[in-house]
Specification:
By secondary structure, the chain is of the alpha+beta class. It has 2 domains: 152 residues, N-terminal domain of MutM-like DNA repair proteins, CATH 3.20.190.10; 125 residues, Helicase, Ruva Protein, domain 3 (Orthogonal Bundle), CATH 1.10.8.50. 23% of the residues lie in helices and 23% in strands. It has 6 helices and 12 strands. It is globular.
């Protein structure tokens, strides 16, 4: 599943092409991609026709585009087009006359004041992703709802998602306190999107390897110093992945131009089972965890007594 770096790469590429653009036409090729929209496909199409996109915003793994509905697109946004990529969703920028790729579920014809006519395609092989129009609500802390817009607004479908570690409004002290108060393993806590968002299986494994922590180490056993060290490693891993365009193992994850990221070449734990640990030489192992796998070094990521 795309995690914070992958979704941010998409947001970053999408923003200059859609911010200020007018949605001229929406074509629904597969209504299953509207499963989180409160209404039929016709409602989705009618409400988007003529709307102006105010920005492209991200929190954790969620992406949204606030919609300015006033005359000329200058009204205050009251709702947003919410995008979740699911397991295999792609948001691609295309020329209006480009061939429509197989597995395309939604098409958006937009007109940008500088870039002219464009098409935004939502492609999704497994149809776990979705798009929906959702009302915006004020953030409880009055800070920006997400990266990409200063507005203190967040869609209702995203409001329960915690801020991510790269968010300027991320409350580090509150996170560290909540983390140590949890009675669970550290990786389960990192994957809890109500505690901290944007960290999925790949970047949890990489961050835990960097911090020399076993994935099942109880959160209550972490000292404040160790918890702060882990948070620092999470930020380092996420920033490095962003610099390298995210992690691509196949053609399913690409940026808006269809290009793959290359952080997969920098992985030290995830997917490296059977390979020697870069630190101690022991072989990286993979264990079953929450219907997925955890990759770690048994030599330098030992489970320690609580």
């Amino acid at each position: 599943m795309p995690e914070l770096p992958e979704v941010e790469v998409v947001r970053h590429g999408l923003a200059p092409a859609v911010t200020g653009a007018r949605i001229e036409r929406v074509t629904v090729l597969d209504a299953r991609s509207l499963k989180r929209h409160d209404g039929p496909a016709e409602d989705f199409v009618e409400r988007l026709a003529g709307a102006h996109v105010a920005a492209a915003v991200r929190r954790g793994k969620f992406l949204w585009m606030p919609l300015a509905l006033g005359e000329g697109g200058f009204g205050d946004p009251v709702e947003a087009l919410v995008v979740h990529l699911g397991m295999s969703g792609q948001v691609l920028l295309r020329a209006r006359d480009a061939e429509v790729a197989p597995l395309t579920r939604l098409l958006f014809d937009v007109h940008h004041p500088e870039h002219g006519a464009l098409r935004v395609d939502f492609v999704d092989q497994r149809i776990f992703g979705s798009m929906a129009i959702d009302p915006l609500q004020t953030t409880p802390d009055a800070a920006a709802g997400g990266h990409g817009s200063p507005l203190p607004l967040v869609p209702g479908q995203v409001a329960h998602i915690a801020r991510d570690p790269l968010d300027p409004a991320f409350d580090e002290a509150r996170f560290l306190s909540a983390l140590r108060a949890r009675r669970t393993g550290i990786k389960r806590a990192l994957l809890d999107q109500t505690l901290v968002s944007g960290i999925g299986n790949i970047y949890a494994d990489e961050s835990l390897w960097a911090a020399r922590l076993h994935y099942d180490q109880p959160t209550s056993s972490l000292s404040t110093r160790k918890a702060r060290e882990l948070l620092g490693e999470v930020r380092t891993v996420l920033r490095r992945a962003l610099d390298e365009g995210g992690t691509s193992f196949d053609a399913q994850y690409v940026n808006v131009n269809g290009a793959s990221g290359y952080f997969s070449h920098s992985l030290r734990a995830y997917g490296q089972h059977g390979m020697p640990c870069e630190r101690c030489g022991r072989l990286i192992v993979r264990e079953q965890f929450m219907n997925r796998g955890s990759h770690f070094c048994p030599g330098c990521q030992r489970l320690r007594a609580a």
